[in-house]
């Protein structure tokens, strides 16, 4: 209880050293102990206050225990309370002396005044001395039956305290079932609430060893209990309401009518001024409607206004807690909040932790209609005095660019950042331009023109420098000075402290060499020599690897270092959707604020209401790592479905991460070298596929002297479809009328495919996973007719398909029309292979 | 469930410390304070209100420079704990009259009494000032209120040399008046915080009013109170048939949303916009509201920055008060970040002005212009000549600004929400307690981009 024995950091000059004062007090207390003179209580009060104040600032006054107990024989309640405070603080360290207090506390437990009874009982249970528990059972038993609710309130928590001192004593006295009875019958709602808290703790702890306890714990979320509590909800204090609502959120209703009954009953809780009550209510609403897509969406609409009001009222701390929850909802269903984007604008005086959440929300809600305004606002922040926030804002602009179809205007803004001549702005913008180019190679011309003007001397941050070097290597054919800039960077090799930059420099020089051999050859020689001599293991290894592969075969080297690349359609998300779902399950808890599920920051016994098996936790950590591989999964175009099946959507939400699936340079070097090595091994073991002439291994010095790389074999670009294709029905019809039939074919459907043909919906779902989208379907068994469309990944070139399937003959007739006729046969192959896989798991 | 509660001074001393469950080690206050103080090496960033160190979750709110802290190991609702900390501060203030380090130190025994009843074994029992009255026996030792900054939004009524009527906002709920008799009075404060962002062309980009109707009642016998708001008040932007937009100050008041204290009954709210309640003791918000309907901003800001020769530039700042002349804004401060390479700034005020000060904050390159008061309808200008250490390459307007402004305007509210009448139900005809209905508007984020 109360102030710990703790030393004060800043000692005031007048602070007493302790010893003499304490013995002084001891003397004075002794004199007063037996006195019955008038006014003695006042003097006692003064002395007690002194004792407590010494206790608070950390002077050990435990030696006064005996005198304090002697003086406590008083009817003065202020004195009694101070004495209880003192005893609670020191009983644990003086268990023998604590025995002295049992007597007067037990006597007070029978006092006429219910308040004295309550106070004494609370102090008795707070002694935390194991060998005194036998004295607790009696007073607790009568306390639970006390006619005064204050005493019962105290007694219920007292049972919980007893449980923590000695679980067996508590269970043997059958207190849990007494509490259960009180919970369902007591007229005082605070008694009910405390019973609920105590039982949740006791039964959760017991459930590990006792099946009965685990059944009892389950029974707390049974219909009768839940309904009983809900019917009294308005009698509870606001804090107890939170407790009850947390329980209700775990309840699984049997019928959907129940869901609406509960929601209607709790509707006015959303107007409560206490944010904790509102959030607890929202959790109930969200969890109850998980299976009802439409209602779930209505809930989002309904809770928007109350949440925004809570964010803007109350202290900054309270509003931060609410904002974190708004954040998770926005991230789950950005389209619902897309018209509220102005609420997520940052105010200049807000703390960084608030601004950061808002920037993420602004990024998430950006869509075709509001992007212009959001990006304009973000550009204002880029000039902000708060540099970390300025950086985040630039990153946000980049993220929006990566998730939009029309990035035209945004690219312009980013290029303007490069011209602002603030080093941190330039640094962030370079990294973004690099990411953009990886997704939209078609912008290379505009970007390269601007990037070419940036002097590498003005770029100091490793990430930015690496990005610049990557662009120099990747686009060396378009940048006049690329070989010379790289050369000068190689010359300063020793001054480059970042291994990341040196790794990129090696790769960039290699790339540049394959594109402009005569100009780069010197730089390459110097870079390889410096790299091989580098003290950093990864740099050394990569240089050596390049050296040897060049020695082995130049054209293989080019294949490895400079392969034809596909644009990255989706950057991997940092957090797996499973983790996000877990956090959402733990709505209205710290998980939301930390953006981590509870198993990541709490130990098992303190997980509170969120108990998950560790196994599950481990599984999802593994899942997170696996998630780094970009999946080319399709995206459901219908946002409504996404609300619940977030997994697909989250993956497409492009975020700036190192796309490890893409290309070596941005990986940690060791894995990239490894990847390259496996690649080369396969090429070596299968020389025909690589298609290179069996060149004799030339000495590297000869090679560089001659500069005779073999011409790279033209790689036939494979047709790649966009997973995000969009085409509206009227545009489809129009095109279908205009375009000639490019291909008309008949193929057969596999028996598994016919078997899977349970209705007209099954096939579109399957085809969608191959990035072929259904726009219309119809027909009855055995004849079905479908119209599909697809788009090329990097350009808006459409393919339209009419597909008639007869399930009895297992045949499909396909008509294909295409914007680009030359690729229609490639598309047809793709389409048929997708179709042939229908029904095969 | 809370493990510990403590209050730390600005220097990190324990003023009160209460361990409820013994689950968190004793050194937690020190760990917490060090973490908050050195959140980021550069000291630029503030620690968030919630963080985790070695499995212990620390929650804190800042009130009058004091840190109210709770710890727990359990994954609890952050909003519940933060709300609770704020509430504990308010309850303590209700009892002590004034919340400050001094008053807490003088009354720590009373505070322990309160804490014992508010939380038991980590579970919240009650935060009702009224219920707690029957458990608190210590008399508060009143500290001199005039010297200290009181807590809460109502504190703005204390600013300046002239006090608003009824300084009773610093009165304890349990202490008796010097005369021995309690004065029957009730305070209703309509406090609005406004946020406006002007674009560089003076057009309003965003605007919002966050308002609170705050009540503090000293009426004996807890009579029922009826509070009537504007009859044409509507709530929910989609609710009205036509979206009436006007900056001239006419038309109905449309709130986006609002919430109410649990004591408020809304039986007749839909009909005649009247709130009925039996006010509990102590200070509490009757209603919080939010409005994004367009309103007339109280100040227009005009800023011009242009180069004036080699390594020199001139700034002209104009502030115009667009409210009636019988109203005066006070404690006005205008701030503007200047280009990083500014070395010197010399100021020129209008001739003959009083109560204005200017300052160039060298450390963060900021211009600061303070005005003691601004009378409605007036306009004020500041000219500043800047000297640079280097030539500016880019657009100079991108290197400076935005201009931000803070102010307080008593007896003015931008939303036009009003308390039409305040009715106290009591039979006796001679019973006529004092009723104070006060309005005040404050800047939350008032920014003009240049």
Top keywords for this entry?
heterodimer; A: 841 residues; mainly alpha; 42 helices; extended; B: 450 residues; mainly beta; Beta-Lactamase; Immunoglobulin-like
Overview of the structural elements:
The complex is a heterodimer of chains A (841) and B (450). With 841 residues, chain A is mainly alpha-helical. Among the domains of chain A are: 221-303; 482-566 and 654-706, no CATH class; 574-608, no CATH class; 729-836, 2-Layer Sandwich (TATA-Binding Protein), CATH 3.30.310. The longest helix of chain A has 20 residues, at 293-312. Chain B has three domains: 4-133, Beta-Lactamase (2-Layer Sandwich); 199-295 and 414-440, Mu homology domain, subdomain B (Immunoglobulin-like), CATH 2.60.40; 299-410, Mu homology domain, subdomain B (Immunoglobulin-like), CATH 2.60.40. The longest helix of chain B is centred in the first third of the chain and has 19 residues, at 78-96. Chain B starts with a strand and ends with a strand. At the A-B interface, helix 2, helix 4, helix 8, helix 11 and helix 14 of A face strand 2, strand 4, helix 2, helix 4 and strand 7 of B.
């Amino acid at each position: 209880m109360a102030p710990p024995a703790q030393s004060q950091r800043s000692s005031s000059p007048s602070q007493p050293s302790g010893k003499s004062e304490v013995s002084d007090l001891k003397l004075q207390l002794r004199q007063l102990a037996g006195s019955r003179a008038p006014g003695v209580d006042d003097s006692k009060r003064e002395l007690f206050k002194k004792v407590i104040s010494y206790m608070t600032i950390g002077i050990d006054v435990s030696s006064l225990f005996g005198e304090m107990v002697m003086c406590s024989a008083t009817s003065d309640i202020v004195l009694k309370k101070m004495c209880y405070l003192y005893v609670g603080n020191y009983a644990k360290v003086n268990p023998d002396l604590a025995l002295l207090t049992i007597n007067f506390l037990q006597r007070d437990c029978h006092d006429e005044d219910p308040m004295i009874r309550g106070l004494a009982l609370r102090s008795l249970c707070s002694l935390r001395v194991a060998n005194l528990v036998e004295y607790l059972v009696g007073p607790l038993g009568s306390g639970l039956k006390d006619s005064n609710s204050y005493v019962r309130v105290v007694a219920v928590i007292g049972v919980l305290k007893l449980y923590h001192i000695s679980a067996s004593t508590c269970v043997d006295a059958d207190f849990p079932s007494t509490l259960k009875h009180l919970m369902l019958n007591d007229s005082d709602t605070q008694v009910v609430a405390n019973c609920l808290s105590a039982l949740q703790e006791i039964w959760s702890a017991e459930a590990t060893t006792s099946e009965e306890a685990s059944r009892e714990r389950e029974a707390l979320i049974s219909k009768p209990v839940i309904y009983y509590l809900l019917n009294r909800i308005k009698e509870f204090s606001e804090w107890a309401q939170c407790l009850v609502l947390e329980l209700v959120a775990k309840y699984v209703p049997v019928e959907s009518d129940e869901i609406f009954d509960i929601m209607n009953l709790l509707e006015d809780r959303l107007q409560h001024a206490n944010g904790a009550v509102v959030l607890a209510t929202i959790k109930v609403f969200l969890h109850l409607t998980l299976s009802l897509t439409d209602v779930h969406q209505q809930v989002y609409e309904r809770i928007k206004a109350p949440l925004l009001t809570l964010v803007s009222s109350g202290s900054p701390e309270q509003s931060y807690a609410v904002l974190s929850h708004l954040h998770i909802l926005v991230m789950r269903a950005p389209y619902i909040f897309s018209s509220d984007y102005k609420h997520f604008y940052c105010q200049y005086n807000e703390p960084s932790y608030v601004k950061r959440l808002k920037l993420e929300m602004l990024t998430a809600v950006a869509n075709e209609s509001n992007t212009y305004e959001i990006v304009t606002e973000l550009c204002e922040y880029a000039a902000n005095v708060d540099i970390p926030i300025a950086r985040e804002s630039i990153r946000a602009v980049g993220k929006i660019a990566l998730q939009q179809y029309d990035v035209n205007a945004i690219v312009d803004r980013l290029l303007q950042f490069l011209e602002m001549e603030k080093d941190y702005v330039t640094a962030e913008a370079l990294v973004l331009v690099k990411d953009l180019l990886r997704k939209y190679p078609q912008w290379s011309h505009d970007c390269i023109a601007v990037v070419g003007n940036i002097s590498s001397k003005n770029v100091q941050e490793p990430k930015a420098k690496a990005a610049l070097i990557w662009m120099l290597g990747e686009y060396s054919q378009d940048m006049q000075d690329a070989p010379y800039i790289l050369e000068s960077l190689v010359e300063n090799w020793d001054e480059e402290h970042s291994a990341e930059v040196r790794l990129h420099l090696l790769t960039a020089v290699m790339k540049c060499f394959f594109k402009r051999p005569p100009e780069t050859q010197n730089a390459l020689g110097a870079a390889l020599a410096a790299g091989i001599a580098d003290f950093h293991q990864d740099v050394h290894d990569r240089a050596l690897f390049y050296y040897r592969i060049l020695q082995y075969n130049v054209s293989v080297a080019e294949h490895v270092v400079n392969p034809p690349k596909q644009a990255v359609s989706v950057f991997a998300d940092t957090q797996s959707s499973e983790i996000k779902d877990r956090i959402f399950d733990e709505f209205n808890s710290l998980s939301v604020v930390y953006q981590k599920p509870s198993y990541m920051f709490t130990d098992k016994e303190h997980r509170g209401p969120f108990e998950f098996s560790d196994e599950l936790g481990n599984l999802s950590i593994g899942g997170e790592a696996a998630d780094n591989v970009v999946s080319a999964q399709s995206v459901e175009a219908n946002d409504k479905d996404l609300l619940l099946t977030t997994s697909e959507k989250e993956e497409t939400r492009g975020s700036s991460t190192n796309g490890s699936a893409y290309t070596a340079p941005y990986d940690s070097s060791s894995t990239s070298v490894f990847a390259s090595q496996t690649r080369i091994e396969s090429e070596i073991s299968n020389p025909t596929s690589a298609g290179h002439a069996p060149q004799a291994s030339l000495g590297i010095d000869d090679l560089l002297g001659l500069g005779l790389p073999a011409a790279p074999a033209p790689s036939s670009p494979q047709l790649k479809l966009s997973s995000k294709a969009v085409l509206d029905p009227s545009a489809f019809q129009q095109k279908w009328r205009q375009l000639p039939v490019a291909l008309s074919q008949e193929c057969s459907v596999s028996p598994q495919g016919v078997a899977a043909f349970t209705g007209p919906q099954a096939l579109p779902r399957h085809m969608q996973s191959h990035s072929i989208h259904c726009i219309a379907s119809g027909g009855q068994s055995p004849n079905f007719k479908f119209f599909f469309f697809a788009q090329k990944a990097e350009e808006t070139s459409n393919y339209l398909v009419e597909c008639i399937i007869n399930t009895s003959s297992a045949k499909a007739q396909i008509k294909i029309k295409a914007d680009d006729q030359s690729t229609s046969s490639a598309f047809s192959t793709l389409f048929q292979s997708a179709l042939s896989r229908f029904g095969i798991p | 469930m809370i493990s510990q509660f403590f209050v730390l001074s600005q220097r990190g001393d324990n003023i009160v410390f209460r361990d409820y469950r013994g689950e968190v080690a004793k050194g937690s206050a020190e760990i917490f304070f060090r973490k908050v103080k050195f959140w980021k090496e550069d000291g630029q960033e503030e620690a968030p209100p919630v963080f985790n160190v070695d499995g212990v979750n620390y929650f804190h709110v800042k009130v009058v420079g004091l840190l109210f802290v709770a710890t727990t190991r359990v994954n609890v609702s952050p909003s519940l704990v933060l709300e609770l900390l704020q509430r504990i501060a308010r309850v303590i203030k209700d009892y002590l009259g004034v919340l400050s380090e001094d008053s807490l130190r003088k009354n720590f025994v009373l505070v322990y009494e309160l804490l014992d009843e508010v939380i038991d074994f980590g579970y919240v029992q009650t935060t009702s000032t009224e219920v707690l009255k029957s458990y608190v026996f210590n008399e508060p030792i009143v500290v001199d209120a005039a010297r200290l900054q009181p807590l809460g939004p109502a504190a703005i009524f204390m600013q300046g040399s002239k006090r608003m009527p009824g300084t009773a906002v610093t009165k304890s709920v349990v202490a008796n008046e010097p005369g021995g008799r309690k004065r029957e009075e009730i305070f209703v404060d309509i406090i609005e915080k406004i946020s406006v962002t002007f674009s560089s062309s003076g057009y309003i980009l965003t605007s919002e009013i966050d308002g609170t109707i705050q009540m503090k009642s000293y009426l004996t016998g807890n009579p029922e109170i009826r509070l009537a708001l504007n009859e044409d008040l509507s709530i929910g932007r989609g609710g009205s048939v036509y979206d009436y937009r006007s900056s001239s100050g006419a038309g109905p008041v449309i709130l986006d949303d609002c919430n109410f204290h649990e004591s408020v009954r809304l039986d007749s709210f839909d009909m005649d916009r009247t709130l009925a309640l039996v006010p509990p003791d102590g200070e509490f918000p009757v209603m919080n509201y939010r409005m994004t309907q367009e309103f007339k901003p109280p100040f227009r800001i005009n800023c011009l920055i242009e180069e004036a020769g080699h390594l020199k530039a001139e700034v002209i700042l104009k502030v115009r008060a667009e409210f009636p002349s019988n109203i005066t804004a006070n404690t006005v401060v205008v701030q503007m970040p200047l280009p990083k390479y500014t070395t010197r700034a010399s100021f020129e005020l209008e001739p003959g002005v009083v109560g204005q000060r200017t300052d160039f904050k060298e450390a963060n390159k900021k211009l600061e212009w303070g005005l003691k008061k601004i009378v409605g309808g007036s306009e004020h200008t500041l000219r500043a000549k800047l000297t640079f250490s280097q030539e500016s390459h880019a657009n100079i307007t991108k290197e400076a600004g935005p201009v931000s402004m803070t102010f307080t305007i008593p007896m003015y509210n931008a939303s036009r929400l009003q308390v039409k009448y305040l009715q106290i139900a009591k039979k006796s005809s001679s019973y006529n307690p004092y009723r104070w209905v006060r309005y005040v508007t404050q800047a939350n984020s008032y920014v003009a981009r240049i």
